[in-house]
């Protein structure tokens, strides 16, 4: 679906353009075209390829979708793929016992389950045009166009500046998701140490693992894009991005921060899982020591009671007047000594 097709001249909007009128604007010096689409069909991509002479391999990748974040250069044309990550409410289960395999989230304040959903943005950027396509993404990116048109001086840099603004918007959208993840991990860590790890241990580990999966989803969006963005501001910069190379360095710095934060979160979740398991194992060991201590006490009681419970005729204690009190006293004394020793050893 076409969102807009606009011609700009020296950073100023000239007009909304029909596809059939694009060629006339491309002939004017200092003019470039920005076409934005949502959930583009194969037919629409074919139209773009015909109008702007897009490279067939780039069009093929855009048509198939499900691409790894990347930036590829074809002569004087750039093709970029970026992941659009957003939270969506998890659909209700339709089959008993089955769960949503894409559920990588938790619950919000209203108790609703959420997951991270990954869409894609494809960008074709040339010296006189830029084509942006957002696929499977609910949020509106109209603010990118508004931001660009408010800064005609920067927009005069050409399609490279529009490409930077799109990329910057996508990268900035990762920050709230990562901050939410950090808050969730800190909350779970506090609960682990507050409750000693033994309470709701299984649920705690499941939540930590879900958070780790969310971090992995964002990691897959950030790391490849960071590697690709490094070529847009240093060394031989593509012609499309030459006038905006310093802006792309800022994006690269943001991606470095995001990548470092994600690495820290993944390490934190792994450590939290290990600590939780260690605390659970420690609690189980304490329980086992208590059980072993009581088993030892009852073992000595059972052994002594078993001796006097044997039905032998010639047992000295059978004829003794104080035999029964003495036997009970010995049993109580033996159990008391063991109890005292176990208490000193902190097994009880």
Essential attributes:
7 strands, Beta Polymerase, domain 2, 7-stranded mixed β-sheet, alpha+beta, 348 residues, Methane Monooxygenase Hydroxylase, Chain G, domain 1, single chain
Q: What is the terminal separation in angstroms?
A: 72 Å
CATH architecture of the domain at 1-94 and 115-172: 2-Layer Sandwich
**Coarse structural class:** alpha+beta
By CATH, the topology of the domain at 1-94 and 115-172 is: Beta Polymerase, domain 2
Task: Walk me through what this model shows.
- There is one protein chain.
- By secondary structure, the protein is α+β, with helices and mostly antiparallel strands.
- Among the domains are: 1-94 and 115-172, 2-Layer Sandwich (Beta Polymerase, domain 2), CATH 3.30.460.20; 284-344, Methane Monooxygenase Hydroxylase, Chain G, domain 1.
- It has helices at residues 22-26, 42-52, 56-64, 142-149, 152-155, 159-172, 174-194, 201-229, 245-308, 323-344; strands at residues 2-9, 12-16, 31-38, 70-74, 77-89, 114-126, 129-135.
- The protein has a 7-stranded mixed β-sheet, sandwiched between helices.
- A hairpin with a 2-residue loop joins β6 (114-126) and β7 (129-135).
- α6 packs parallel to α9 and α9 (245-308) runs antiparallel to α10.
- The longest helix has 64 residues, at 245-308.
- The protein is rod-shaped and about 125 Å long.
């Amino acid at each position: 679906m076409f969102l807009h097709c606009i011609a700009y001249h020296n950073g100023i909007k000239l007009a909304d353009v029909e596809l059939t009128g694009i060629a006339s604007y491309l002939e004017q010096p200092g003019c470039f075209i920005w076409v934005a689409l949502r959930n583009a069909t194969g037919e629409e991509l074919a139209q773009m390829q015909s109008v702007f002479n897009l490279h067939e391999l780039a069009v093929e990748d855009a048509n198939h979708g499900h691409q790894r974040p990347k930036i590829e250069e074809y002569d004087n044309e750039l093709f970029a793929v970026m992941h659009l990550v957003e939270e969506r409410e998890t659909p209700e289960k339709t089959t008993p016992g089955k769960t949503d395999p894409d559920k990588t989230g938790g619950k919000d304040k209203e108790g609703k389950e959420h997951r991270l959903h990954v869409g894609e943005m494809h960008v074709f950027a040339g010296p006189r045009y830029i084509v942006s396509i957002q696929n499977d993404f609910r949020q509106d990116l109209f603010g990118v166009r508004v931001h660009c048109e408010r800064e005609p001086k920067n927009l005069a840099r050409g399609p490279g500046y529009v490409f930077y603004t799109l990329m910057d918007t996508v990268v900035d959208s990762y920050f709230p998701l990562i901050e939410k993840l950090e808050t969730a991990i800190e909350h779970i860590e506090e609960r682990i140490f507050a409750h000693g790890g033994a309470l709701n241990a299984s649920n705690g580990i499941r939540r930590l693992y879900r958070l780790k999966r969310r971090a992995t989803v964002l990691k897959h969006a950030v790391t490849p894009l960071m590697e690709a963005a490094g070529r847009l501001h240093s060394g031989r910069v593509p012609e499309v991005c030459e006038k905006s190379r310093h802006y792309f360095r800022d994006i690269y710095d943001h991606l470095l921060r995001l990548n470092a934060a994600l690495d820290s979160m993944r390490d934190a979740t792994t450590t939290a899982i290990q600590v939780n398991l260690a605390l659970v194992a420690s609690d189980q060991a304490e329980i086992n020591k208590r059980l072993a201590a009581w088993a030892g006490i009852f073992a000595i009681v059972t052994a002594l009671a078993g001796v006097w419970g044997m039905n032998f005729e010639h047992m000295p204690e059978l004829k003794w007047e104080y035999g029964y009190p003495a036997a009970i006293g010995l049993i109580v004394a033996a159990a008391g000594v063991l109890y005292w020793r176990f208490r000193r050893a902190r097994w009880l």
